[in-house]
Write a structure and sequence with these properties.
Largest sheet: 4 strands, antiparallel
Distance between the termini: 27 Å
Structural class: alpha+beta
Order of helices and strands: HEEHEEH
Oligomer: single chain
Radius of gyration: 12 Å
Helix content: 25-40%
Strand content: 15-25%
């Protein structure tokens, strides 16, 4: 299924998310929105490290792997213009 970054930011604007970098000893960190999680991931190396962002929903979680996280980072950059 194709990712629509704009829709994802809208859908999960107030949904708890976590960021997990796949580096030994790195803890997952919690955020209050997808945008906050993506900003953290971007600022901490998501373009060069393996990372996963998980959106925590009541019935199931949605996990965005490294490539999807990079798409979300690019959407943030475009939104600033």
């Amino acid at each position: 299924m194709a990712l629509d970054p704009t829709q994802a930011f809208s859908d999960y604007a107030a949904t708890p998310c976590s960021v997990q970098f796949w580096v030994a000893g790195a803890d997952a960190l919690e955020f209050r929105s997808l945008r906050a999680a993506v900003i953290y991931a971007r600022d901490n190396g998501a373009l060069t490290k393996s990372v996963e962002i998980t959106v925590h929903l009541p019935r199931e979680d949605i996990a965005y792997g490294t490539e999807k996280v990079r798409e979300l980072v690019k959407e943030l950059a475009q939104a600033k213009r």
